[in-house]
Amino acid sequence: MKTLLSCARLFVLLGTALLAVQVPFYVGQYGETLAAHYAESQRSLGQFQDEADRFFDGSIAELVSHYRDSDDEVFQAGGESIQAIYHRNLVLERSLTRYRTGPVSAYTQALVRPVPEIKRAVLSDYSYVIRLDPGAIVFGLGVGVALTLVLELLARGGMLLVRSARRRRRAVSRGRA
Q: In this predicted structure, what is the pLDDT of residue 109?
């Protein structure tokens, strides 16, 4: 039984470490993809920004309003398209700024509050490879050890509760006899 428990602990440790080693690379790839999408968004918005600079003192909102106020349906639809491009650009810019503020922000951005479009792009192209990067190894082993310890503490706590309940039942049954 002890050998089986030792094997289970080792399996949890190694499995968790192997999975957790992927996290730093996923976060890095998320950042690269976010930066690439933002650059593409900037290029898409550039032409409209030039128009806004020339005719509306740089205000994209006024350019969009001008398009929407037109009697021409094509221009109105164009205003909606410009607004969508502008909104996407703002979302990507804010996300990239948050991502670049530090490691905790990068991990939070990539794992907890990712931009859905970026998350899909990263997951569709992600390759699961074990890379022997010191930071990834430390992260993986740290998460593996932490999870193993938590599971060990929960198992021991559960065993203590079961033993305590058995003792109480025995004491109650002895008191009745």
A: 94
